[in-house]
Specification:
This protein is mostly helical. Helix content is 57%, strand content 3%. It has a two-stranded antiparallel sheet. It is globular. This is GST N-terminal domain-containing protein.
Length: 239
C-alpha cells in the first residue's frame, strides 16, 4: 500500500476508528482478478467495498455491496457515514474550504508537480512554487481548516512521500538535485509552517498506523530499478 491515494483512505478510516479489512494490491504487479472482478472500470487503487461479506484476495464483491473508486470520493463518503468522527467540519463554510483545499491540491502538487519533479524533470522552481501556494493556504496554526479533517488526509500522504523521497534520494534526478531540494524545503525557515504542519499530523495516532516509510521506500526503489534496468541513464519515467 505505497500509493498516497490508498494511505488517504486508511488514514481517514483510522481517524474514524472504523472496523475495516484491507487487501493489498501490488501496483507493480496487479493481479488479473482485481481488474476483472473488483475495480472493473479503471483497475486503480484505492477501491472501497462497502457492505457484503468479508472478501479474500480473488473474490468479487457481492451484489449487495457498493464499490467506490477515487480517493477523494471515498474520503467524502467516509465523512458521511461516520458523522461522529467529524471528518469534515459541521460549519458549511469550513466544509467548502476543506473541499477547495484538497481539490486544489489534487490539481497541482498531488497529480503533477511532485511526481514531475522526482520522475519527469519538472524544475525545482515549479515544485517550490507549488509548495509556496500550499503553505500560503494553511492557517497560522492547526490543520488545513482548523480542526483535523479529510483535507489533511488528502494532503499529508503526498507531503510524506515528497519528504521521504528527497531525504533518501529516491528519484531519477541527480542525487545532488534531490539533496538540494530537501535542504531548500525541509531545512529552511521559509517552509517552517509546512514542516510544522507535517509534524502536527505525524503526532496523530492514525497517521502512525497508516504510514510505513520503510515499505514506501522499498516500492520507490523497486520502481526506479525497473526504469534503470531498461535505461541506466534515464532521467524521467515514460508517460
Amino acid at each position: 500500500m505505497d500509493a498516497h491515494s490508498a494511505q488517504r483512505v486508511r488514514l481517514a478510516l483510522e481517524e474514524a476508528k472504523a472496523t475495516y479489512d484491507t487487501i493489498v494490491i501490488d501496483l507493480l504487479d496487479k493481479p488479473e482478478w482485481y481488474a476483472q472482478k473488483v475495480n472493473t472500470d479503471t483497475a486503480k487503487v484505492p477501491y472501497l467495498v462497502y457492505g457484503g461479506p468479508k472478501l479474500q484476495p480473488g473474490d468479487a464483491p457481492s451484489g449487495d455491496a457498493v464499490g467506490i473508486p477515487e480517493s477523494l470520493v471515498i474520503l467524502e463518503f467516509l465523512a458521511d457515514i461516520f458523522p461522529n468522527a467529524h471528518l469534515l467540519p459541521a460549519d458549511p463554510t469550513l466544509r467548502a474550504r476543506a473541499r477547495l483545499f484538497y481539490n486544489g491540491l489534487e490539481k497541482g502538487l498531488a497529480k503533477g508537480i511532485i511526481v514531475g519533479f522526482l520522475f519527469q524533470e519538472v524544475p525545482l522552481q515549479d515544485l517550490l512554487g507549488g509548495l509556496d501556494n500550499f503553505q500560503a493556504r494553511l492557517p497560522p496554526t492547526g490543520f488545513a481548516v482548523g480542526e483535523w479533517s479529510i483535507a489533511d488526509a488528502a494532503a499529508l500522504p503526498v507531503l510524506l512521500r515528497l519528504q521521504l523521497a528527497l531525504k533518501e534520494g529516491l528519484g531519477l534526478r541527480k542525487p545532488e538535485d534531490l539533496k538540494e531540494a530537501y535542504a531548500t524545503i525541509f531545512e529552511s525557515p521559509k517552509y517552517e509552517r509546512l514542516c510544522r504542519y507535517i509534524d502536527d499530523n505525524l503526532a496523530r495516532p492514525g497517521v502512525a498506523s497508516s504510514w510505513d516509510p520503510a515499505a514506501t521506500k522499498a516500492k520507490f526503489e523497486q520502481r526506479i530499478q525497473i526504469v534503470r534496468a531498461k535505461d541506466p541513464t534515464a532521467t524521467s519515467m515514460p508517460h
